[in-house]
Design a protein that fits this description.
Keywords: Membrane, Transmembrane, Transmembrane helix. Helices cover 52% and strands 0% of the residues. By secondary structure, the chain is an all-alpha fold.
Length: 128
Amino acid sequence: MTTGGRSGAPGEGGGGRRPAWAGGFRALAGGGIAVAITLAILDPVLDARDCPNYGGSGNASAFGDERYDLAFLLVLLAWLAAVLVEQALPVAWRNRGAGEVALRAVAAVLLGLTVACCLAARLLTVCH
């Protein structure tokens, strides 16, 4: 606080600043980009006809190595954990009311959970 009693001056806690539009959604966006890059690198099978066990029986992986099935699930779980942790941090609440904080948190968690579940269900069952 300055000697004049004015809080919110530049460099002093930012009491008068507008909240960032992406506040509470940074982990969702960053994790989504990381998952997309991971999928681009791993290049999974998206069509059942391209599976190594097509026309036969048994289980196969959509990825080149079966160990990537577990690794992909762990990446998705880490992404969801990062979204949850971000919602619990006071930085995501900065200069927002309780209703807006709760709405943004629910939106971020539900969107992340929906995308993660749809990706996992699609990619981990395509060759089974």
